[in-house]
Amino acid sequence: MKHPAGSVWQRPERAARGPAPEYSRARIAAAAVAVADAEGLAAVSMRRVAAEIGAAPASLYRYVTSRDDLIDLMADATSAEFDLSRPATGEWLDDLIRLGHQIRGIHERHRWLADLTPDKVIPGPRTLDVLEYSLSLLADLDAPAQAKMEAIVMLGAVITIFVRNQPAGTDSTQADAQRRAAGAGYLATVLAKGEHRHLAVAVTAMAAAGAASAGQDEAQKRSAAEDRLLRRVLSGLLGQ
Questions:
Q1: Torsion region of 90: left, alpha or beta (phi above 0 gives left; psi -120 to 50 gives alpha)
Q2: What sequence ranges are listed for the domain HTH tetR-type (predicted)?
């Protein structure tokens, strides 16, 4: 099948002539997102999404030309979940951290987002609105425009790493706790030999920090670690 040139965003949703389309891009995107949320990104296919909306597989090509188009629609649909109404406060770092909390929430609801290759996704109108809003939070900051864009990209990248590495469920299992305890025991045995001086200092410092946050649950600890890392990374990138 010959595909029209350009991205899905450059093609009209419906032809200038002929009957009104039976399905909308929004409905197609919602069906694809639901499949990915339930079964992962690999489960999303033209045939599967067509079945979800009750369409013949071949008819879906009237609306999207490929699975890549589907992915573009899905990614942009999740960008609609951002709240872009909050104005900049003048504290750019705090504003970016709050934006990061939104990014994390969306990634936790749609964990397949971490499986996307950013360079292969063509940003749609909602995603561009998010980028515009993100950069507006840095409008008064004296930093190069390129550095600001790199900081926004890094904000998303760091959060993606954290979400990818956290358990899919709300709490770790007893088996997870036992495995962590076994790993800690092995590490303590190795460090006691005195052959890893620098590592021992770092581990001791991390253990002390962990003891100080003993009243927090794992989610709170991850959130605090994420915020701490983001503040350091963003401050470094933007020369503050």
A1: left
A2: 22-82
State the pTM of this model.
0.84
Domain borders along the chain are: 8-78, 81-168+227-237, 178-216
SS3 of 45-113: the string is: CHHHHHHHHCCCHHHHHHCCCCHHHHHHHHHHHHHCCCCCCCCCCCCHHHHHHHHHHHHHHHHHHCHHH
- 3-class DSSP assignment, residue 170: coil
Residue among 179, 132, 124, 182 nearest 152 (CA): 132
Q: How far apart are CA 185 and CA 176, in angstroms?
A: 14
CA angle 121, 130, 88 (to 5 degrees): 155
Q: How far is the C-alpha of 73 from the C-alpha of 128, rounded, in Å?
A: 13
Residues whose CB falls within 8 Å of the CB of residue 139, separated by 6 or more in sequence, listed in order: 88
Task: Say how far apart CA 72 and CA 89 lie, in whole Å.
Answer: 32
pLDDT (0 to 100) of residue 114: 94
Neighbours of 96 (CB within 10 A): 21
Structure tokens at 101: 């909390």
Q: What is the pLDDT of residues 120-170, one digit of tens each?
A: 999 999 999 999 999 999 999 999 999 999 999 999 999 999 898 877 655
CATH placement of domain 8-78:
1.10.10.60
Q: Tell me the three state secondary structure of residue 122.
A: coil
